[in-house]
């Protein structure tokens, strides 16, 4: 928390910044799953990747994931080079990679869905990222802003008392959202392939900050 008590000519003011936070259980899992395949030809690598990704998508749809929650986010094709003594780098084939971004709304069944999708794609599947988020954070963000406001008010009241004054009217209020950072996965434990990945949702924290200026009165 920062505070900036100030004096402006005959108008005495106090300016402080308050921070606050609130927590809520996430209700949405974002999953990035891909398929990477190698083959001697461009056509072979691309076809294998497409087949693997189709298998993953088929499982997702069969488990009730809506088409709107499955989106293609990556497609790449590159040469596969290997170093050989006396020959330098040699072309040994091609690598094709495809990626899907998936939203899973049923957290209780998410582990089973992911495991089945991974099995369908086989060894070519790459589980790139998992995030647990709030599908709508409006209510918890409002709680965080309220907590930030009360902290700013407490601090301003203390400064007013130290200055032998009382708080007057609010002159300005500035919302200062904290810098966005990665949303941590609250709990994830990797077990055997048959058991899949156990996910513990935990809670997500939403932070807020507000800077306010009050007039100081004798």
Number of β-strand runs: 10
Q: What is the total number of structural domains?
A: 2
Radius of gyration: 27 Å
CATH topology of the largest domain: Translation Initiation Factor IF3
Structural class: alpha+beta
Strand order of the largest sheet: 1-2-10-7
The proportion of residues forming helix, as a percent range, comes to: 25-40%
Question: Can you put this structure into words, describing what you see?
Answer:
- The structure is a single chain.
- The chain is α+β, with helices and mostly antiparallel strands and 218 residues long.
- It folds into two domains: 3-26 and 136-217, Protein of unknown function (DUF541), domain 1 (Translation Initiation Factor IF3, 2-Layer Sandwich); 28-133, Alpha-Beta Plaits (2-Layer Sandwich).
- Helices cover 28% and strands 47% of the residues.
- The strands form three sheets. Strands 1-2-10-7 form a four-stranded antiparallel β-sheet.
- The longest helix is centred in the last third of the chain and has 25 residues, at 138-162.
- The protein is elongated, with a radius of gyration of 27 Å.
- The two termini are 26 Å apart.
- The model is unreliable at 1-9 and 181-195 (pLDDT under 50).
Briefly say what this structure is.
This protein is of the alpha+beta class. It has helices at residues 42-62, 107-121, 138-162; strands at 3-8, 11-24, 28-39, 70-84, 88-104, 125-133, 166-175, 188-190, 197-199, 204-217. The strands form three sheets. Strands 1-2-10-7 form a four-stranded antiparallel beta sheet. A four-stranded antiparallel beta sheet has the order 4-5-3-6, with helices on one face.
């Amino acid at each position: 928390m920062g505070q900036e008590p100030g004096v402006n000519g005959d108008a005495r003011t106090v300016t402080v910044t308050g921070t606050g936070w609130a927590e809520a259980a996430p209700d949405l899992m974002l999953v990035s799953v891909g398929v990477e395949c190698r083959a001697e030809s461009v056509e072979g690598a691309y076809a294998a990747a497409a087949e693997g990704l189709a298998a993953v998508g088929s499982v997702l749809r069969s488990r009730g994931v809506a088409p709107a929650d499955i989106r293609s986010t990556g497609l790449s094709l590159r040469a596969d080079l290997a170093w050989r003594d006396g020959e330098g780098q040699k072309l040994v084939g091609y690598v094709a990679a495809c990626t899907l971004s998936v939203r899973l709304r049923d957290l209780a069944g998410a582990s089973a869905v992911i495991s089945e999708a991974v099995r369908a794609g086989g060894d070519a599947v790459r589980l790139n990222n998992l995030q647990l988020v709030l599908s709508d954070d409006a209510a918890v963000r409002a709680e965080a802003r309220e907590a930030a406001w009360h902290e700013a008010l407490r601090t301003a009241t203390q400064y007013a008392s130290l200055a032998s004054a009382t708080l007057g009217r609010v002159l300005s209020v500035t919302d200062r959202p904290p810098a966005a950072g990665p949303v941590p996965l609250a709990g994830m434990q990797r077990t055997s392939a048959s058991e899949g990945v156990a996910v513990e949702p935990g809670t997500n924290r939403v932070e807020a900050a507000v800077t306010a200026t009050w007039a100081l009165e004798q």
